[in-house]
Protein: Cobyric acid synthase
Amino acid sequence: MKGLLIAGTTSDAGKSLVTAAACRLFARNGVRVAPFKSQNMSNNSMVCADGAEIGRAQWLQAIAARVEPEAAMNPVLLKPGSDRRSHIVLMGQPAGTLESGEFATGRRHLAAAAFEAFRDLASRYDVILAEGAGSPAEVNLRGGDYVNMGLAREVGLPVVVVGDIDRGGVLAAMYGTLALLDPEDQAHLKGWIVNKFRGSLDLLRPGLVTLEERTGRPVLGVLPWLPDLWLDAEDALAIGGWSKDTRSGPKLTVAAVRFPRISNATDIDALAAEPGLDVSFTVRGGDLADADLVVLPGSRATMSDLAWLRERGLDEVIAKRVADGRPVLGICGGNQMLAQVIEDPNGIEGGGTVAGLGLLPTRVLFGADKLLGRPTGEWRGQPVTAYEIHHGVTTLTSGGDAEEFLDGFTSGSVWGTTWHGAFENDGFRRAFLTEVAQRAGSSWQPVPDAAGYADRREQMLDRLADALDDNVGFTSLMDLCEQAGGTS
Structure:
């Protein structure tokens, strides 16, 4: 077995992107490589071809590796529903909940499933590139850990630690990471990768030399700051990482509500990638009032986030937009909020019935079973492929008057659908945005011959792989992978 664990000094240090870059780099060198993450805590997920739900980051890493995404690549997915409870997805399927008090000691069965999944992948691939979670120095959680040093010890993986220098304090964070590990864990840590560096490397080099002297581990490379890498963020800290479009010409402004329990926020990435769109996540009523299009994205806690929306008076801002004929789009949980009523007889979100925003003539009923799928359809003659992850089923109310929109409905200037990923379809996205621009009175039009969303993703993955190859090197990483199994 050959493999490597890519850990980080913090969340959002760059573990996911470095792992994706390594997957693409290994694939380009003819290595049959698979990504892996024992446990992912994220509300950004994806449905595989076989109906299994996994973290979005591991899906992207599989795309980078040019292999089919599958449940074994992310055997445990925890989807936070509140500050104290997460919903468990085990090997791609719902498997109950995990309370905060169980986090350190109540995950043994999850660890066993994760280790089994790793060994299964290792029997079918040449190299396994595992991504850690948070920081391996979270010693308060070490006893139940199976995603960082717990995984490294179990299967004998060498470990590299990525640190984000743009945040500051990266050298101290790396030194402290090693210092907090016990000797057996320290033996697995083989080196450091500095991420997001901009400036003169000559100024940084004395610090790198000191780090190597103090830790006895080499700095394997320094990765440059690469702007406009908005690839499939899994961490809430990374949502909205794209930059503003600075090109001249008519603009279309999009404001997406940043719900406390936002899920599948990557739906907004495809809009942000379209030339001439200025897209932002916001919690400000003024932003929602001024935008050409308001998006209510997915939510892992629809009823709770709807209450949050009302507490801030944002429901009134949205209602006024609709009264004025200005565009509003709801996706999955956001679509459910647009309904007249939301019913939860099975206690999926705590139970009960609440009034929706009443902006579509629909009713939402939460069923006991989660619906997972990869649906296809069309709109305005444009083909659409998507994925769905939801309990709530939306139907028209008696006497409701609305047209079909994908699997949902549209009425006036309001659109709603449960389909995620629909806007990654270039023709559909541009047709929809053209209609939005007309309703909003904007002169924006799609840019002819602009790169498609999938093409841009491929370009970014290759750009990441180039940076990793230039500054760390395929041979260096492969040499580390070949050390797997040597330390226990």
User: Anything to note?
Assistant: Residues 453-471 form the longest helix (19 residues). The domain at 2-231+457-481 is CATH 3.40.50.300 (Rossmann fold). DSSP finds 15 helices and 27 strands in the chain.
